[in-house]
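go over whats below:
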Amino acid sequence: MENDFSELSTVLFQQKLKPAALKIYQGLFPGCEVKDLREKGVEVHILDKEFGIDSLIGFKSGQWISLQEKYRNYSSLKWGDFTQEYKNAEGTSYESFGEWFKLGAQLYFYGWANQENTDFLKWFILDIPAYKIIIEKLGGIEKAGIKKQNNRYGKASFYGISLQTLYPAMMFKHNINLT
């Protein structure tokens, strides 16, 4: 029997907040259509699997842009940073490269939910090429943030990068304070 991830708390959290994200995209890009590449559950779309692209935003003109998305819960606001997944299952025989190594999307939506998980309290959209250039100018991701290990979910490692560092790459933002 195939694994069904549709009932995972992280998937349910994402599904609950997806309408709020779509509302933001419609506000920024009126008339756009958003195609979620994660809709088939365990059948991962090649653009998501290989290039870290979660969705495509299509415009009336026929043009489109690719988007990576990360929704954080309200309690994550206390950290006030951007987390970039580095490796999956780090330190195990299943270790693999994480999102950082395959990030091919053009934009990155990053938002923190309100306490009810009905909307985003704070969010921003990164221009990914500008983000990558910032990281390179700093000497690599190792110099841009603090490496941490998530031992609760999949033993993924990630870098916590300050919002101050990423501010120049933020194309759009809502309630992002750098003080």
Summary: Residues 41 and 96 are 21 Å apart (CA to CA). The longest strand covers residues 64-72. The chain has a mean pLDDT of 90.
